[in-house]
Amino acid sequence: MTVSPGRYGVWRHATGLSPQLAREIESLGFGAVWIGGSPPGDLKLAEDLLDATTSLVVATGIVNMWTTPADEVAPSYHRIAERHPDRFLLGVGIGHPEATGDYSRPYATIVEYLDRLDALDVPVAGRALAALGPKVLDVSRDRTAGAHPYLTTPEHTRSAREQLGDGVLLAPEHKVVLDDDPESARALGRPVVQRPYLGLRNYRANLLRLGWAESDLDDGGTDALIDALVAHGTPEQVAARLDEHLAAGADHVCAQVLTRGMRDPEPDLGRLASALGIG
């Protein structure tokens, strides 16, 4: 079994996804759609998106290990994989400390969860792991198809590829705003980064490992930090930023397109697809 998401994908919160949008994403040439927001273990939305498309890969980004037991998600995985072979990737992860009342054994919980997926015959090649730090990147390399880092930069991608080695999926997410006015682009991107991510320990720790200072992360983040985490500019400039991940060693990069007022993302997705050379 091999799931091949292609070079470019779209990350979008579950509440903003529909079968119609999945069909549009597929028709634009993107290889995958990632379902954000800790989708429930029944994976009904993933199945609906797959049913509505013919070749698009659907991945979860991510099913939360604290809230969805392996015993709940495994039967859903098998149901979908049988119906849509090689088109579904089960992304799982530990989330962040602030989201759960018991975060005392995060590393052990990851290992135990993957052990249980093994026991329930969810194949290594059919699952990915949300991974930022070195220990969890090692687990993603050894126990899954690869890593799905969130809120990262090409510098993180380069470091992660060096640690993972060859032949392991590396699929980072990157936020984008198609706006060539830096001030208005930052005005859209900063709140999305600030709340909740700049207040969460795991994301702060990762950014500090990348060389940012605490002062860069406070008070909504410096302009330099926001520019690093939210690509903005013309479609061509944004495409070039996404391609920096590929040049740094990513196999696949998924763009989270931010729009004002929950505006329909399809026009911006179309412009980005054209700039990426896939539309």
From TrEMBL:
Domain of life: Bacteria
Gene3D superfamilies xrefs: Luciferase-like domain
The protein's name in its UniProt record: LLM class F420-dependent oxidoreductase
Species per Swiss-Prot/TrEMBL record: Pseudonocardia kongjuensis
